[in-house]
Input
Amino acid sequence: MSFWIYTLVAVIKIALMLFVLLTAVAYIVWLERKVVGRIQNRWGPTRVGPFGLLQPAADGIKFILKEDLTPPHVYKPIFIAAPIIAVVFALTSIALIPFGNSVHILGYDIPLQITDVNTGLLIVLGITSMGVYGIALAGWSSNNKYSMLGSLRASAQMISYEISLGLSLIGVLVLAGTFSLRDIVQSQGGHFPGYIPHWNIFRGQIVAFFIYLTSAYAETNRIPFDLPEAETELVAGYHTEYSAMKFAMFFMAEYANMVTVACLATLLFLGGWNGPIFGPPLLQVLLPVLWFFLKVFVFIFIYIWVRGTMPRFRYDQLMAFGWKFLLPLALANLIITAFVVAVRA
Amino acid sequence: MHLALFLVFGIVCVAGAVNLLIQSHPIQSALSLIVVMASLAVEYLLLGAEFVAAVQVIVYAGAIMVLFVFVIMLLNAGEEERSQGSHIALLLGLPSLLLVGVLLAWSVTHHATDSVRVGSLYGDPRTIGKLLFTQYLLPFEITSLLILIAIMGAVVLASKPEVTPVGPASGLTTGKEK
Output
C-alpha cells in the first residue's frame, strides 16, 4: 500500500469514526433521557421529531446559539483550554479501538481500526488518564469554591479508581499474553464444549469484570459515583461556571468516555466482535461489527439503567470502597489468575 | 516521515522546557512540564520503545503531574515574584552550564557513529518483562523496596498525631510539631 493511499484510508477512517462517535454521543443522551424518563414513569423528550428523535439536533443548535459567558473572575487561558483538553483526550482514545476484522476493498486489506499499536491497551489507559487534566483545570481556573471542590473530588476519585481499573485488566492480559486489543479479541474466539463462548468473562474473569464495571463508573463520574457534580451539594461541580458550547464539550467528553469504557469492556471481557457468523459474504463481513456494536449498546444501557436506579454514595464511602474493597479484590483476582495460568502452563 | 515527526516533537519538548522556566505562574509551568513529558513519550514511540512510551504517559504525564497540579491547586499558589537573582546562582550556574554544554558536544561528536536510529530500538513489553525478571532482578526489587518505604513514610506523615492529654497550650504545639 503506497503512502498516499494509506493516508487517504486513514483520513476516511478517522472521519467515519469521529462521525459515528459524535452521533452515538448525541443519541446516548437522547436514549438516557428516554430510558430514565420511563424508569421514573414519564415520557422523556417527545416534542421534537417522532419519539423526540430530533432532540439532540435541537440541543446542539441551542448550545451553539446560547451566549458564551466568561465570568470576570476566572483565569482565562486555562478556563478556555480546559474543555478543549477534556474533549480532545476523550475523542482520541477511540483511535485505538478495533471494532471488527479487516475488510477487502479494491484489493486492499483494511483493518477496521484507526491504528493498531502493539501496546494498544496501555495507550488507551494513558490517554484516558490525561483526561483528568480537563476536569482538574476547569475547577481550578473557574475560581469558584463549588467548581474547585468538584474538580478536587473528580481528580482524587479518578486517580484512586484508575488503580483498581488497571489491576482488573491485568488478569485479562495474563490470559491473553498481549497488550494488543486485536490479539486479545482473537484470543477469545471459539467456544467451550456446550456452546458457552470462549469470552474472558467465562474464563474466570467474572470478578475482574465487576471490578472493571464499578471502577469504570467512577472513572467516568457517573451515578452512583457522580460526586464531582453532585447537584445537591456542589451546584454542578467543575462545570458550574461554564455555559453554551464549553459546557457542551464537557458533556461530550463524559459521554465519549462512556463509549470508550464500554468498547474496552466489550473487547476485553465480552469477546469483542466474536459471535455467530453465517449467511452471504457481505453479511459475514457486517455481522462481527454488528455484534460489537450490540455489546457496546448493552453496556451503555446498563449505564443508563444504573443511573435510573441507584442513589449517590457519600464521598468517604466512595474512597473506602475503592481502596479497602476493590483494590484488594483486584489484587487477589490477579494473583489467583496468575497462579492458575502458571499451573496450566 | 518519522524523522520529521521526531524533530517536530523534539522542538516541542525543548520549547516546553524553556516555557516551564520562563512562566511565572506555577500552574502554567506544570502544564509546560506535561507537554515535555508527553512529547518525550512520542520520542520514545518513534524510537521504537512503545512500552516505555505508554508507561511514560501513564506514570509521568498522567499520574505524577496530576499530583503536581493537585498540590498547586490545593495550595492556591499565585504568581511568583521576580527577585534580582542571587550571585551564587550565577557563580555556580554559568560554569556548570558551560561544563554540560562541553560534555554534550563532546559526546555527540565522538559517539555519533553508534547513535540510536529512528525505530531501531526493540522495546516490546515481553522483552522488557523478561529482562526485568532475569538480568535486572536485583535493581528491580531494590526499587520496589524503595517505593514501599516511601509509601510507608507517606502514611506515617499523613496519619493524625495521637492526641495526648496534656495542657491546652502545650497540646496544641506538640500536635503541630508532629
Notes: Chain A has one domain: 70-344. Residues 70-344 of chain A form one domain.
